[in-house]
Design brief:
single chain; 176 residues; alpha/beta; 5-stranded parallel sheet; two-stranded antiparallel sheet; 7 strands
């Protein structure tokens, strides 16, 4: 089973997409499952703030290091930790194939202007961008990567070989 850990401020965002169609069937069959980890749980102030102004100034806010680091540290078996950010490496089918073979994956779904950079010194995070456009959060990006990985797991699609001859399986587009 592929266990996906989602570090997100808005776990309710995933209610519909993870509970319909093939994804729901895969969850029911034990092919994939999800756990949600909210950094607000680890915030120490009474309002559970997780944002702060960027060091050196500038517009926007950043996700604070303390709640985010505590949240990640609480995940027992995180597997590869993927930070979804517009400045990351472009997502490729090769990356997806590698991640689909893991038992655990953790996605950091950033909000605001991004994350405190110290996070990358504390955890082995891989920064990945799913598009050349800026999204409101990493949550939408996480859904893209989740679906791309899940469909490569045995039993997810009707016929496992369906994913062998399709666009990007050999770094080319599938024929019309």
């Amino acid at each position: 089973m592929l266990q996906i850990h989602l570090v997100t401020l808005f776990p309710d965002f995933y209610t519909s997409p993870l509970n319909c169609g093939l994804m729901q069937k895969a969850r029911e069959a034990g092919i994939i499952d999800f756990s949600f980890h909210n950094p607000r749980t680890y915030s120490l102030d009474r309002h559970h703030h997780v944002d702060d102004a960027p060091y050196g100034g500038g517009p926007g806010m950043l996700m604070q290091i303390e709640p985010l680091a505590k949240c990640l540290a609480a995940i027992e078996r995180p597997g590869p930790i993927i930070c979804l950010t517009p400045r990351g490496k472009p997502l490729t089918q090769k990356m997806v194939r590698e991640w689909a073979s893991e038992d655990d994956l953790t996605f950091i779904c950033a909000r605001y202007e991004g994350l405190d950079e110290r996070l990358f010194d504390l955890f082995p995070c891989e920064s990945v961008a799913v598009t050349d456009a800026v999204l409101n959060s990493g949550d939408s990006a996480a859904l893209v990567v989740i679906e791309a990985c899940a469909r490569l797991r045995p039993g997810f699609m009707g016929k496992d070989y369906s994913s062998c001859e399709e666009s990007f399986s050999c770094d080319l587009l599938e024929y019309p």
